Amino acid sequence: MNLKNYVVNFFIIITLSLFITGCNATEDIADDSSKEAEVERGLMALDKENYDSAAEIFESLKKKYPSDNSLKTYHSNALAGSAGLDTYRLMKTIDRLNDENSDDSIEIAGRTLTGAEQGSDPVLTTEEIADKTDKFEKAMTSILEIAGTDYDSLTGSKAPASRSIQAVSLEDLDLSKFTDDELIQLGLMSFNHVVLVISDILTEVAGSDNIILTKDGFITLYNNNITTADIDILLSKLSLDMEFINNAVTAIENFLDIQAGETNDISEEFEKFRNELDQNNDKTITENELETYLNNL
Questions:
Q1: Which domain range does residue 152 map to?
Q2: Residues 99-103: contacts with CB under 8 Å, at least 24 apart
Q3: Is pTM beyond 0.70 here?
Q4: What is the DSSP letter of 228?
Q5: DSSP letter string over 158-194?
Q6: Cα gap 274→278, rounded to integer Å
Q7: Fewest 10 Å CB contacts: which of 78, 101, 125, 132?
Q8: What is the Cα 105 distance to its own chain's centre?
Q9: pLDDT tens digit string along 171-181?
């Protein structure tokens, strides 16, 4: 699985978008108690990687100005940052793995989320996996609020009983309410979220309290059995991740103005990734499909 170019483009676009929007938001600020001043403080906290502080600021602003969708996006960025989504670490990891001709995308997410440098293993405990997963899901909810929904509603816990819990459908989600930047952000978070969800499954079935976030680390814990009490919910989450990644690729193509019939590395890598997990190409990740994916690592 090789998503290096895919993830690089995510970060280039998101970083650029945040920079431009941040500059616009902080121009001509005169009143320290104004909305603009509060936004500036939040953006400065983001820039300094004070993610918890930024999350508090933008959560408060969301409540004061519920119609301002940019605040939902900023809040999402802060939560994702507190989960370990760091541009600099990701770029360093991609550069090194490129130099080594490695295709270990699990390690890309692992070193991004843990901050582990070369020479040390990117390890997460089960408690850290749960914390980061929760933050990513709250970060996704913050963006999904733009369309009047939340993460839990799309993954089964609030779904109608008549619907299979593994089947995730975005037919009722109005994607036109999201900008390309927001769809790209959802996809980037989903890429890292996939690694966390599979880590959760592997540590539970292996009875381990930690996992090394690399291809070899996954293989070490995988014992040809992934059945757990919560497998349906977790498979539903993986299915939603695939949906968001798919939408993000389309958004990137729109952003880059890629014409019909043209090829690009992003779409090619996405198709490879999606086919590895969703072998039936039905937008639903089943237990058998996940086992096939793990067997082929």
A1: 4-295
A2: 103/1, 103/2
A3: yes
A4: -
A5: TS-TTS-TT----TTS-GGGS-HHHHHHHHHHHHHHH
A6: 6
A7: 101
A8: 14
A9: 778 889 999 88
